[in-house]
Amino acid sequence: MSQNRSYKFCFGPWNISEGQDPYGPTTRPPQSFDWKLAKLKKLGFDAMMFHDDDAVPDIDAKSAAQVRKETRELKKKLSDAGVAAEMVAPRLWFDPRTIDGGYTSNDPKCRRYAIERSLRCIDVANQLGTDLIVLWFAREGSYIREAKNARRCVDQLVTALDRMLAHDKTIRLSIEPKPNEPMDHAYIPTIGHALAIAQLTRDPKRVGCLIESAHAILAGLDPADEIDFAMSFGKLWSLHLNDQNGLKFDQDKPFGSANLRVAFNQVRALERNGYGRHGEYVCFDVHPFRTTKPAHWLAHLSNSRRTFLKLVKKSRTYPEKQAQALIADRDYAALDQLVIEHLLGK
Fold first, then answer.
1. Residue 130 counted as domain residue
2. Which of 35, 170, 190, 214 might form a disulfide with 31, Cβ 3.0–4.6 angstroms?
3. Residue 215 a catalytic site member
4. Which of 51, 193, 240, 300 is catalytic?
5. Is 325 domain-assigned?
6. Of 76, 15, 87, whose CA–CA distance to 47 is shortest?
7. Catalytic residue among 52, 53, 54, 252
8. For 265-318, what is each residue's pLDDT tens digit?
9. pTM for the full model?
10. How far apart are CA 57 and CA 71, in angstroms?
11. Which domain holds residue 30?
């Protein structure tokens, strides 16, 4: 990537959350979508991510005409604010019909619902001007291994992907893998799994992936390696940068919050692979700490962007010749210290 290349940034309305978690209620009052949209551009962000029901609340209860009307209204709001829609994702995991999975439910009626909801999501994306559909297979797994036939579930996932690809000839499907939570184990836990299942679809060129830093860490993998792997295939179409303190629940901490060196290597991987040259966004899927006061509500987003840009500078000023000499001499102890001191600065 050119040293002068700039990045475009993105977040979703859910990234300004109210502090509710599985163990307690909200800690901040809710804010309207219009309030969140107004803050986005002021923070230096260029686009917004959407779930389908972020774009059209209560989407299942509305007719196709109502969905089109509300989507057009949202598109106008975005255009007036100078903000693009980066992607749209079907939020299947909130509906009771997906309690046993969406595309891989044992109930054919529930599988049908998941596909129909996904096709409606594609229609919303078209109206918002994005060709990117993100698929987080949140409940595509099992709590009890004997409850499902995992081989059959792969076929069911391919069937769902094929229906989406057939519904629109230009849409791109970006799979966001995660190894667990909310299900005990997921069927597509890593980028390797996502890119493999893409090859079984009717149009593998239109099935790629989205990497989330925390999800890679939860799988015991290094996010930078996942970035390099996906970009070797030309299939990294979006990413969610954040941080994760070990193998806990999905924390969505600010980028670089838990491990600055891991964050640095993710930025280096993006730089060396030219991420962004085809219009891809740097998205931050981060949440404010539950203890955050409303006065500091947006700090996690501005801090993540600030950290990223500082690490871009660190990547572009990395003493590559010195590092290569140490690599040639196999002096990895000195290389290790070189990286540490480069990150520490003067």
1. yes
2. 35
3. no
4. 51
5. no
6. 87
7. 54
8. 999 999 999 999 999 999 999 999 999 999 999 999 999 999 999 999 999 999
9. 0.96
10. 10
11. 9-318
